[in-house]
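Quick illustration, no need to memorize.
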Amino acid sequence: MKDEMTSDGKLFERLSGLYQKDPEEFERISKTLIHEALEKFPEKHRARGYGIQMRIDRRLSHFKDPVARMNEMVVIFWEQFREFQEVLNDPVGAGAARNKGNTPAKVIPLTGRSTRH
């Protein structure tokens, strides 16, 4: 993958219109590119990157039309931008708001039930 798409121009050229021509190939290439980008993350941030990507994929999975997907990506971008601004303007308040309602989970012990179905 890296050899055939080393420059942005080649990448754009290859992906331009591919979604309409061959959606499966587009998805395969995009997943590969995303995976390659996430693997370049520092080790301590990689799991978080994969988690964020999983949430994005889940939200976008509801939209099959490319324009609707793009519109949802714009919504996601502005939500994250607003959150970023809140953290910049009031780091303590934003942290408190994020942690509000986070209570430790209660573990409920399971009693000895029969495993037969």
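The helical segments are 8-15, 18-21, 23-39, 43-60, 66-89, 91-99.
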